[in-house]
Amino acid sequence: MNNSQDKDRDDQDNNNKLNLIPQRFIEATQKLNTVLLYASLVGIMTGFVGTSFRLTVTAILHQRQVLAVLLQNYPILNYILAIAISGIMGYVAFWLMRRFAPDTGGSGIPQIEGFLDGVFSLHWQRVLPVKFFAGLLTLGSGMILGREGPTIQIGGSVGKMVGDCFRGTKEDLRVLVAAGAGAGLATAFNAPFAGIIFVIEEMRPEFQHPISSLRSVTLACVMATLTTRLMVGQQPVMDITRFDIPQLDSLWIFAILGIFIGIIGYLFNLFLLRALNIFSSLRGLSYQFTGLYVGAIFGLLSLIYYPTTGGGDYTIIWAFDQQISGDVLILVFCIRFILTMISYGSGAPGGIFAPMLALATIFSLGTAREFHSWFPQLLPEPAVLAVAGMGALVAATVRAPLTAIILTVEMTGNYLLILPLLITCLMASMTAHKLGGKPIYSVLLERAIQKKSNQK
């Protein structure tokens, strides 16, 4: 009996010694495992599905523009068709979402984060098809929604699917879902490094083996980007001017811009939550036909003034290419701000990253043209301020400044603007924090958990 107790005591002592060994030493002795192979498969599949989603949305919007041009001599018919097509697309999207997969509403990022935290399940069998087709319909209707939300949730679902197929452990599933989510962001913006940092900075999953798990996330993002570039080419998502390094004595302008965008970020989160609450309180016909009338609004606006609709890619290029006055840009910013609240607040399947990038760019460019008139020597190229401000709203609302900085650099190819981007994004993030704002995805996750508990 004493020998047995001594053996148990020795085993306990050995376990205690193992617990004292730093994680880095344990991981240094580990061999490569099959999760890396699964992660590469997740990346390839996410890259293919996500890029197909992106190309299909572009094709739908292009065909709608072609139809509008063909019917320009028949304005009444043109307006009727635009309103009807967008309204029907919105209605069908909401029906699919509510009938088959309510957890595909919004960007889907809080749902992925909830799975990684162990508070939500992830049913890829219904999430994958519904998010893909409902996302096509909402983005194709002209709503102000980003493709990154669908591709992130699709990527996470692909990770869960691959893990289930290969009968991975619970930890393997978490790693693959995180890898798929990062690959989804990388696919949406052709930005692999941003996908990796997004998982680390925003999702912050706590893995049993952090280094090997990070390798899986990295590999998935790389494979997704390779697949994307094979399908659409290697050019940045935003094909705009590559700017030189701004003068050091002009950096205070970027700091002031960051403060302004930080205030906007605080207001953005505040009004977005109010919009979500308003739409979630709807009952009866106003609830049943949400997609119909929201879609119809954007069908009408797409003919009245196209830059006020869509995810934001076209609006950003339009703002850079046209010599538009600062007043007009600020007006477009205000309109898109309100319409973004309606689009995302309605609960439509779609992301919020791209709309925020567009909002920040338009506001920054409008501000830059005003600054240029006051300080022409300090800011010889006013559009450089727009690139610096592009990711600042993401930094302020999501509270993920590194993701915002790297995403902006990879999207635009402006690698020389790291310092101005750091200043603008950090000032925006700190200003929003000082005002009392909370990270938007954390608030949305908390809201989703509360909704789930109320339903029980």
TrEMBL record:
What PANTHER family does the annotation carry?
CHLORIDE CHANNEL PROTEIN
Topology of this chain in the membrane: Multi-pass membrane protein
CC annotations in GO: plasma membrane
Provide the protein name. Answer: Chloride channel core
Alphabetized UniProt keyword annotations = Chloride, Ion transport, Membrane, Transmembrane, Transmembrane helix, Transport
Any transmembrane segments, and where?
35-56, 76-97, 175-200, 252-273, 285-307, 328-346, 352-371, 383-409, 415-432
In terms of one coarse class, where is the protein primarily found?
membrane
Please name the GO terms that the record assigns under molecular function.
voltage-gated chloride channel activity
Protein location: Membrane
Q: Does the keyword Transmembrane apply?
A: yes
Question: What SUPFAM superfamilies does the entry give?
Answer: Clc chloride channel
Highest rank taxon of the organism: Bacteria
